[in-house]
Amino acid sequence: MPPEELPSRKGLLSGLRVVEISSYVATPLCGLTLAQLGADVVRVEPAGGAADRTRWPLADSGTSLYWSGLNKGKRAVAVDMGSAADRGRVVDLITRGGPCVVVSNSDRYPELGYEALSALRPDVIHVLLQGRADGGAGVDYTVQAATGFPLVTGAPGAAAPVNHVLPAWDIAAGLYLAVGLLAAERERLVSGRGREIRVALEDVALATAGNLGYLAEAQVTDHERTKSGNDVFGTYGRDFETADGVRMMVVILTERHWTKLLTATGLTAAFEGLAEALDIGFAGESQRYEHRELISTLLARWFAGTRFAEAAEALDRQRILWERYRSFEELGRDGGAALRKSDLFDEVDQPGVGPHLAPKSPIVVDGGRLAPRPAPAVGEHNTQLLDRE
Amino acid sequence: MPPEELPSRKGLLSGLRVVEISSYVATPLCGLTLAQLGADVVRVEPAGGAADRTRWPLADSGTSLYWSGLNKGKRAVAVDMGSAADRGRVVDLITRGGPCVVVSNSDRYPELGYEALSALRPDVIHVLLQGRADGGAGVDYTVQAATGFPLVTGAPGAAAPVNHVLPAWDIAAGLYLAVGLLAAERERLVSGRGREIRVALEDVALATAGNLGYLAEAQVTDHERTKSGNDVFGTYGRDFETADGVRMMVVILTERHWTKLLTATGLTAAFEGLAEALDIGFAGESQRYEHRELISTLLARWFAGTRFAEAAEALDRQRILWERYRSFEELGRDGGAALRKSDLFDEVDQPGVGPHLAPKSPIVVDGGRLAPRPAPAVGEHNTQLLDRE
User: Fold this and answer.
1) Above 60 in pLDDT, residue B239?
2) Membrane-spanning regions, if any (chains A, B) (predicted)?
3) At a CB cut-off of 8 Å and minimum separation 6, what does A272 contact?
4) Minimum distance, in Å, between the CA of residue A313 and any CA atom of chain B
């Protein structure tokens, strides 16, 4: 049960019951996102814990930091998923009590599917993550490969694909599941009936490539996207290294940014001279994108001759969009000193891990967010939730 | 207005009014996601259109494929945002009629902020995208740099950061906004009162790094993450090139996958011999991750000697998780033939672009999804929505 809080701090989803039959990233993230807004989320695992209970990274004790991170603030039950009687206990958990939402990444057991559950409780909402919409298998890494991004990531000219390390499609799919679930919950509050929601990882990736214009470009133009390193496509942005070896990302989105960047770097006259001599212009993002090599050559020269502290001050004075590259190691250093500055983090004492800073929800409601809570042990809430009848 | 559809096909968010004062990716994606589920979304732009109206990629006509992709199925009004009278018309649009949700990425105009709007309509829900939670500026590229992922992406040993091309934080932030909005909408249906929701891009990135265990690892262990190319962290997965030059991603998550992969590649005896000779094991994902160089060397040899069709058949026969790398160009080729196979896409005739395949929502509701609709022209719905009083 959530700790006693001010009424406005109980969470917007207070009273929402969620049973999560899941593993890895997308479905657990859906449950986590709901739990962070106050929902009561119960994760169902096979006896002994699911395969992702030991997923890296691990604490020195062997406790999975990954599992702990994605299952904060949930309750957990463990059952023998191979036993019809045990699956029946999960069905009971879903169908007794108030209306319930099921989040799952498996259609292996018919009695835990939408059809069977909605026959017992027409108000059940069931959200299912799939690899592919046709029922085929797929994980973030295979969906990445299928969708074009690895072939346009990394240094120009290199043929090999560069996968992104962030499991971006898992993250997006988990959030789409939560959106679908809450949209169905809205309608359920009015109509009293539940819905079946499905989201396929591959659809998430292809829909995103479509929403961002990549797939339209490939259909209606003969432009071919190629790798362009850290150059931002269609406007001006790139990373630079300062005289003292600090890496910075700089982004120019507006005319004001551009003019101010030239002021900051003392390059106004140089670019005016270039524009005149070469009969080209730098006004407008298309022109800056077209002449990005020229721009980068002059800027890289300035950064290479300027120490970080000086570059940062010059850019800040002109309110340019920039950021220093930080490593995970730096973010965690000194007990997470850098993280402690933000209201996003609070200390959690996770068994097997110890006290550390863990994130709350990135969603701020009326200026506040619920404190993070530890992830549960395997079967920690069996007695509370399964064995009481 | 959405076309006449079967009752179950009107969309779960039918009746939800959304006014979107936004630009670029995150907030438009929030509105798009709601529109794809049946909400009535009106995008407000400055006279002549916002800066992102010309964002690349472009069709040959100059129409932005990016803008068209992110604003499908919305209505659009254009006003002089510098004029108090025109901003008043936007306030009217929000506060007259049924309850309304505002999606915004700007806190520039106080009368369009939560405080002022909720004084007029206590049931207004207002969701605001920020760069940083402290009000500071930030875009996907700067937030990427701040959060560790570019320094662990790409080939081992290279010092330079590799940004991911997918604006993953924009995508996640847009979906978190939609989750927060729908959670507030759920509570509004019960309590009748609105809420102020805020999501900062930087918080989304840091929360995700925390949820996946990266930040806990940096705080409580002395492991330092480094670049590892396309190797999947903590388990076995990598890309390979076949004899005929096709790139494939292969992922081994379970013991069954591993055993079957050895069967598929005829390497069972080779790995048994290696295990015995070197006194090591390959059972369990931690061991396979530890010995990944060894595994990759033997597998790469097999792929390099095997043509794609043969490799694909061998892997499929053993139900291994794999995927061929595809380019955007390939996905769009022949009028999007590859996309046409999926129910996710349907034809849209976008002015300035022409007929092409555009995605529906990746969220499938009771087996169906709404057809995609074109994006609006600048001010297309001014008469309909602003000028009628």
Assistant:
1) yes
2) none
3) none
4) 16
Q: What is the mean pLDDT of residues B362-373?
A: 97
Is residue B379, in this structure, part of any structural domain at all? yes
Same domain, B9 and B81: yes
Q: Is residue B124 within 8 angstroms of chain A, CB to CB?
A: no
Cα distance between residue B157 and residue A130, in whole Å = 36
Whether A193 contacts chain B with CB within 8 A:
no
Alpha-carbon gap, residue B47 to B351, rounded angstroms: 19
Q: pLDDT per residue over B283-335, tens digit each?
A: 999 999 999 999 999 999 999 999 999 999 999 999 999 999 999 999 999 99
In this structure, the answer to whether residues B101 and B202 fall within a common structural domain is yes
Who contacts B146 (Cβ-Cβ below 8 Å, separation ≥6)? A323, A324, A325, A326, B138, B202, B205, B206
Residue B218 lies in a domain: no
Domain that holds residue A291: 247-324
Q: Which residue of B lies nearest to A29 if distances are taken between CA atoms?
A: B211
Phi then psi for residue A142, to 5 deg, are -75, -35
- Mutating which of B144, B363, B365 best tests the A interface, going by the most A Cβ atoms within 10 A? B363
Give yes or no: residues B351 and B298 share one domain: no
Q: What is the mean pLDDT of residues B59-88?
A: 97
Q: Helix, strand, or coil here: A363? A: strand
pLDDT over 90 percentage in chain A = 95
**Number of structural domains, chain A?**
2
- Interface pTM (ipTM) of the complex? 0.97
Residue among A173, A356, A364 whose CB faces B197 most closely? A364
